[in-house]
Amino acid sequence: MTGARRTTLPARGLRFLLARRRVLLRLATWSVLETGQTFLIGYGPARALDAGFLLGRPDTGLAWLAVTGLGVLLGAYGTARVYTAVAELVEPLRDRLVERVVSRGVRTGDAGSLSGLTQQVEIARDTFAGLVMVSRSFVFTAAGALAGLFALAPPLLLVVGPPLAAGVALFAATLRPLARRQEAFLVADEALAGHLGTVCPGLRDITATGAEAHLSAATGERVEAELRAARALAHWGVLRVASLALGGQLPIVLLLAAAPWLLAQGVTTGALVGALAYVTQSLLPALRNLVHGLGASGSRLTVVLRRLAPAEPEAPTGNAVPARPEPTAEPPPALALSAVTFAYGPASTPVVDHLDLTLPPGSHLAVVGPSGAGKSTLTALAAGLLTPDRGTITVGGHPVPGPEAAAARVLIPQEAYVFTGTLAENLAYLRPDPVPEEELLAAAEAVGLAPLADRLGGLGARVDPAALSAGERQLVALTRAYLSYAPLALLDEATCHLDAETEERAERAFAARPGGTLVVVAHRISSARRAGRVLVMDGRNTAYGGHEELMRSSALYRDLVGSWTPGPARRRSEPALTLGDADRVDAVAGPGLAGDGRHVVAHGPVGQVQAPGDLRDGGSLGREG
Amino acid sequence: MSTRADDDAAAGHARALLRTATRYSGPRCAALCLVSMAATGAGLLLPTALGRALDLLLAQAPATRWVLSCAALVLLLALLDAAQTVLTGTVDARSTAWLRRRLTGHVLGVGPRAADCFGSGDLVARLVGNAAEAGTTPAARAALLAALAGPVGGVVALGLIDWWLAAVFLAGAPVLTFLLRAVARDTTESAGRYQRAQGRIAAALAEAVEGVRTVRAAGTQDRETARVLGPLPELSRAGHRMWRVQGRAAAQAVAVAPLLHLGVVAVAGVLLTRDRLSVGDVLAASRYAVLATGVGVLVGRLAGLARARAAARRLGEVEAEPATAFGARPLPDGPGRLELRGVTARRGGRAVLDGVDLVVPGGTTLAVVGRSGAGKSLLAALAGRLADPDAGEVLLDGVPLRELPHDDLRRAVGYAFARPALLGGTVEQAIGLGLPSSSPGRIRKAARAALADDFVRRLPGGYATPVADAPRSGGESQRLGLARAFAHGGRLLILDDALSSLDTVTERRITDALLGDGPGTTRLLVAHRSATAACADAVAWLDGGRVRAVGRHEELWRLAEYRAVFGEPAGAVSGAET
């Protein structure tokens, strides 16, 4: 699992096998039974003819055949045991692949890891098992047959051996180009499947834009590419046939052609028949399995493994579970951004542009602005999930990113994370040590989770995330964050699925946390009103101040407040309309976003803050409620 | 769900598909049939030739002719094998490609209905997996006769050498199979346990993937990984068990054929001692016994054909869904007047729209409002013929939509959706989807109108960013979808809840741009917010599948029930779209 060094797939495979020498030994031991069976398949009938039937002694002949039959049964037993040994090779590989897929999925949030888990890992498991079986079978069968030939009459080896070696050599030489064709085919097949995977869910949009012909042509191109790859593969298949003919069928003719010489060398009739049996019944099928199995499965396994286990990327930033921070004499600002600039690509316009912001401990800030203004980017920067292109960020005086800063903040995103487990496990998730039940209950009460906890059946009840509504999941996530030791809470639309009263209760609970600083990406205007300070983000029109102040100075803020109130009925209560993306797609798990590793949206730039103000005046406004 | 008639139709379509696919590679299939028969024939001749050559060689008689004919047969077999390999691979590939082209074209012709009927994931599985399986049918059928002839020929040849040999083979086969079957165990149980453990891991991983922001922010990646991997030991145990069970089944399979073969050789040996057979005959008998045990292969092939047939049926089901038909009546010039006459549409046996009459004069904007399930989206779909009504007619500038040719209809009507599917390689191509030629200027102008230009330019590659790599929120997706609709143009623009994920300021800016566009476009807006409805020239209030009222928003606002349409649900929790 360390894989920090960039190593090639074959080298890693070799390491994997070398670490399992005992299993390989067991595999070899049981395979020897198969070798024995193969040996008897030619030797038994040969002796049955020479010592029995040809001498008019049918009982001796039948005895030899019975021995051979016994060998077959023993060989079959060996086959059953071989499967068990193969399992000890295959299952650890599967375990390791599952571990990798899960570890990567958890880190990147790549939804593609799910299909990796259920499909590609299984393909790898099956093809690897097939490879082991086929190559092992060839080696041990060939050994049995060659030993049998030697036992019957050494000159037979001279006739059968060279063409067999030539056939295997030809196959080995063509293995690489064949594997390339096979890989090209798999790639074309996947490209087609991926393309159809976007076409089928998009049928409505294709019809609506009248783009059927365009998509049909685009699909046709991929179908054509796959067809070309498949045809090339079929043509290269001729090489397999050639290796088979050379290694497996030529010896038949050679045995006949050399028969007079062999008979002159003292080779018996039975030995000749036995040799033919070896060639047709053992070597030819084993070679056929090898030639067909190794070519197809080998490249399939390579492709899948390369996808599942690429050289491990950078080590995960190991910010451990937050521990209780030590109190300091002079409290540094809870959050400070200085000249922070951030863009999603080197060529793209910055989302956050030269932003300065200082929040003293205990303050309560609301961030508002149209969707795409950079609000989520700001929280991600503060949490250290994104690194600014320029400027510095500190949390509680600790530089971001860094373990101390990570321990001093908790980010609650819009998409609340609840996992299958007990409610207590879910709530204590951010705490390194076991949390007393009373503390959990008190937190649930403070945030407003208590009714749900009762309904679920208490803290020990198992939670099924799918059975909870989006709002209920948010309540769980909020209570969890409330319990964390981190003094700075970043709520990124974390209350968007709650109704106004529940939201207010939760926000006030956070604001009342002793020494707690709260940054809320506001979802309703009431959120902004509760906050002591408001940051308005939108392109160059960024403004900062108190509610009343901004109502006077910021047109955008007035606009936002105004549109929070529904059209013709301005008298109506304010919570009716939302400020943010109420049903924002979870971009991480969303379709088509697999593997991009980012989860924060590219938003509008934040210009220089117009009126930086002095936040220290704000004091602990958050506690006023 | 599906009736017997549907089944028959699907089976009929499946048969027709396979027939046409076979005809598509007709000459190749015929060649494959001949080649495979020739290969089987050569394979059946070879043992006799071997036996005869051996006898002559042992007798030290001149055997050159027979040795040469053996060599010729072996060479012929190799050549035929090569031809068969190429033909089978080519026919499989051609048939699969043909089926995929045909079915994809059909699915595109059916349109959104296809995804409704089968589900888009299942549709992909049919077009990819089932088409590949069904595509093996023509080649497998062409080679079936030869596959049958091999084992049968083997038994017959045994009988020709000596009837005892055939009798032993035929008697022994069922007995041995039966005796050894007792050893085999059912693999389904262990496979089921394996899949359950795998399912538990997958479910936990799906949760963690969804919560990745929380996990990453909390730095609990390692703990999460360990938690998700909890059932791994059980998976491993189940996996080992599976191999054990499979090993037992394999042991049975590898024992049957050699034992049968030995039985035949034993009888042949006894007959040799009685001088009824020569050594060459014994050799030939031994080879024929091997050929006869090829029955197992034949059974496997038949099972493969049955699977392919089942796959073809699933394609037949898709094919049985009729494609949308278009008319030939050209769309006359006009202001874009939309008219619904007595439109009724049923979904799942329920009339979602029930006799709706509605007129949107050219160049005006109509907002459609109503509670969830009132049929707003269906109405939007009918208005631009994404679906057809079960009764009634939809007319654009006096022409029923059904009578319009495809291009006229699609050029005239543009759509934007709440959750647009963005197709095309890059963001630019996604916005320009369906446009006849590339027109960067038009695309950027549309993006600006949809307030998407800013954030697109902030993407890592700007407009050239692959659409799959463009991280975007629901609001950003909607703006790209709007940009696509604006770039598309047309005399009728239908926005099906296409502003729902935008914040109110952005929404107002876009509606201002949209409505300030001039009288050239008729607009149909499905709206959830009163501010949106307030911008429209008129509002159609849908309730229970009927138009409850049409009027100006301010007038309707006096009605408490109308106001209730826009009220937030009273419950604790609500998504914007429930």
TrEMBL record, chain A:
<dbReference type="InterPro" id="IPR039421">
    <property type="entry name" value="Type_1_exporter"/>
</dbReference>
<keyword id="KW-0472">Membrane</keyword>
<feature type="domain" description="ABC transporter">
    <location>
        <begin position="335"/>
        <end position="563"/>
    </location>
</feature>
<feature type="domain" description="ABC transmembrane type-1">
    <location>
        <begin position="31"/>
        <end position="285"/>
    </location>
</feature>
<dbReference type="GO" id="GO:0005524">
    <property type="term" value="F:ATP binding"/>
</dbReference>
<dbReference type="InterPro" id="IPR003593">
    <property type="entry name" value="AAA+_ATPase"/>
</dbReference>
<keyword id="KW-0067">ATP-binding</keyword>
<feature type="transmembrane region" description="Helical">
    <location>
        <begin position="23"/>
        <end position="43"/>
    </location>
</feature>
<feature type="transmembrane region" description="Helical">
    <location>
        <begin position="128"/>
        <end position="150"/>
    </location>
</feature>
<keyword id="KW-1133">Transmembrane helix</keyword>
<feature type="transmembrane region" description="Helical">
    <location>
        <begin position="156"/>
        <end position="175"/>
    </location>
</feature>
<protein>
    <submittedName>
        <fullName>ABC transporter ATP-binding protein</fullName>
    </submittedName>
</protein>
<dbReference type="InterPro" id="IPR036640">
    <property type="entry name" value="ABC1_TM_sf"/>
</dbReference>
<feature type="transmembrane region" description="Helical">
    <location>
        <begin position="63"/>
        <end position="86"/>
    </location>
</feature>
<keyword id="KW-0812">Transmembrane</keyword>
<feature type="transmembrane region" description="Helical">
    <location>
        <begin position="238"/>
        <end position="263"/>
    </location>
</feature>
<dbReference type="InterPro" id="IPR027417">
    <property type="entry name" value="P-loop_NTPase"/>
</dbReference>
<feature type="region of interest" description="Disordered">
    <location>
        <begin position="588"/>
        <end position="625"/>
    </location>
</feature>
<dbReference type="InterPro" id="IPR011527">
    <property type="entry name" value="ABC1_TM_dom"/>
</dbReference>
<keyword id="KW-0547">Nucleotide-binding</keyword>
<dbReference type="InterPro" id="IPR003439">
    <property type="entry name" value="ABC_transporter-like_ATP-bd"/>
</dbReference>
<dbReference type="Pfam" id="PF00005">
    <property type="entry name" value="ABC_tran"/>
</dbReference>
Automatic annotation (TrEMBL), chain B:
<feature type="transmembrane region" description="Helical">
    <location>
        <begin position="29"/>
        <end position="46"/>
    </location>
</feature>
<keyword id="KW-0067">ATP-binding</keyword>
<dbReference type="InterPro" id="IPR003439">
    <property type="entry name" value="ABC_transporter-like_ATP-bd"/>
</dbReference>
<keyword id="KW-1133">Transmembrane helix</keyword>
<dbReference type="Pfam" id="PF00005">
    <property type="entry name" value="ABC_tran"/>
</dbReference>
<feature type="transmembrane region" description="Helical">
    <location>
        <begin position="66"/>
        <end position="91"/>
    </location>
</feature>
<protein>
    <submittedName>
        <fullName>ABC transporter ATP-binding protein</fullName>
    </submittedName>
</protein>
<feature type="domain" description="ABC transporter">
    <location>
        <begin position="338"/>
        <end position="569"/>
    </location>
</feature>
<feature type="transmembrane region" description="Helical">
    <location>
        <begin position="142"/>
        <end position="161"/>
    </location>
</feature>
<dbReference type="InterPro" id="IPR003593">
    <property type="entry name" value="AAA+_ATPase"/>
</dbReference>
<feature type="transmembrane region" description="Helical">
    <location>
        <begin position="249"/>
        <end position="273"/>
    </location>
</feature>
<feature type="domain" description="ABC transmembrane type-1">
    <location>
        <begin position="30"/>
        <end position="294"/>
    </location>
</feature>
<keyword id="KW-0472">Membrane</keyword>
<keyword id="KW-0812">Transmembrane</keyword>
<dbReference type="InterPro" id="IPR011527">
    <property type="entry name" value="ABC1_TM_dom"/>
</dbReference>
<feature type="transmembrane region" description="Helical">
    <location>
        <begin position="285"/>
        <end position="304"/>
    </location>
</feature>
<dbReference type="Pfam" id="PF00664">
    <property type="entry name" value="ABC_membrane"/>
</dbReference>
<feature type="transmembrane region" description="Helical">
    <location>
        <begin position="167"/>
        <end position="184"/>
    </location>
</feature>
<dbReference type="GO" id="GO:0005524">
    <property type="term" value="F:ATP binding"/>
</dbReference>
<dbReference type="InterPro" id="IPR027417">
    <property type="entry name" value="P-loop_NTPase"/>
</dbReference>
<keyword id="KW-0547">Nucleotide-binding</keyword>
<dbReference type="InterPro" id="IPR036640">
    <property type="entry name" value="ABC1_TM_sf"/>
</dbReference>
